[in-house]
């Protein structure tokens, strides 16, 4: 009978305890604010579930949540297929492999606030390189500061540029792990490129794609810095995602109770949808 060595947990346990401690205190503080009201001087008044009811019935919350889901859905629909396509086109051997890998990793090395500021300057209609080119060279009326559609196109393009590399690198890792024997067998059987992708590459990439989709969902659903620096939630409230609206309530209006309740609802939605993604994508493995 094979024995399992659990001694490795002794090395991991201190890290788990530290992370749990650092996460537990902020979480309990948020829970405390979510059921109470304060007017300063550290004086609290019990409110119960009032803030949760207020948030769940708020049209403002529903609108911001809808914009957040739309942003995340567009990101996943664009970045996952695009990342797979780029990974398939990258070389597997030779000099260009490290060049391609380093090039793909470069956008992810740029800090989030710098990405937002960079794209803000890049897309300004009069002084930005892209904005000036679209307006004065191509004759397209582009102004993300005034046009909601242009603002949405800009934040989507920015995120695709910034984070498609993550899907590419994970997909590429899955592709290079496929043994050559599978390709040789497919060649003998006369399989087409589509058949090779459908029956060999895609199934073998399933695990890394699950990780990629979960990471991109959680990150895009909780994104704040890049769109806030780029558009500030405007024009109007057209790009005010749920994360931006939460910060406005907490810091702009200083409504700590509603903000705490919204953050817990936000957290619960993220966990629920992540669990659904994971369950659906690993359903065949559990059978």
TrEMBL record:
Membrane topology annotation: Multi-pass membrane protein
Cell inner membrane listed as a keyword: no
GO BP annotations listed: transmembrane transport
Keywords of the record: Membrane, Transmembrane, Transmembrane helix, Transport
Record flagged with keyword Transmembrane helix: yes
Subcellular location: Cell membrane
GO CC, any one term: plasma membrane
Domain ABC transmembrane type-1, chain residue ranges per copy: 65-277
Domain of life: Bacteria
Membrane-spanning parts: 9-31, 69-88, 95-122, 160-178, 260-281
Family, as annotated: Belongs to the binding-protein-dependent transport system permease family.
Protein name as it appears in the record: ABC transporter permease
Organism: Actibacterium pelagium
